[in-house]
Design goal:
By secondary structure, this protein is mostly helical. Helix content is about 70%, strand content about 0%.
Length: about 150
């Protein structure tokens, strides 16, 4: 039988992960994160400010508009997943993080998504699912040497 991590430790790890997640789409050579248009950058900036102030409904509206403009930007989907987690909408957070993973080939983004999925599952009481997601995080860390 696999030993479970205490929920508090998993949540603390996620909070560190989420704190490291910038809301701004990142452009790196060789990634699928397309250059963000000025409109997308402005919407993301507004979303970041709104979320930092605890106005998560407003932040999600800005991110949804940005996704309408750039629907294949995996970082935008991940950002919306983080906001949904902060809203305690755990099933949506998981679904959005999975969508981000489907659009991304970037291991660091996938690790953040799997950590978010683990925390969302843990918050819903799905300990086995949370552990499976944590296993994905560890596998990605081993593959990239992080």
């Amino acid at each position: 039988m696999r030993q479970r991590k205490p929920a508090a430790a998993l949540i603390a790890a996620l909070m560190l992960t989420l704190a490291a997640c910038s809301m701004a789409p990142q452009k790196k050579a060789g990634t699928e994160a397309a250059p963000a248009s000025l409109a997308v950058r402005e919407l993301v900036g507004k979303a970041e400010s709104a979320s930092a102030a605890g106005r998560h409904d407003q932040a999600s509206a800005y991110l949804e508009r940005a996704i309408h403009i750039a629907p294949r930007n995996a970082v935008l989907w991940q950002n919306l997943a983080v906001v949904r987690y902060r809203q305690r909408r755990f099933e949506q957070a998981e679904s959005l993080a999975m969508k981000s993973n489907a659009l991304s080939a970037e291991p660091a983004l996938k690790r953040r998504n799997w950590a978010l999925i683990a925390a969302a599952r843990q918050a819903r009481g799905d300990d086995e699912g949370a552990q499976a997601a944590q296993d994905h995080v560890k596998q990605l860390q081993q593959e990239t040497g992080d």
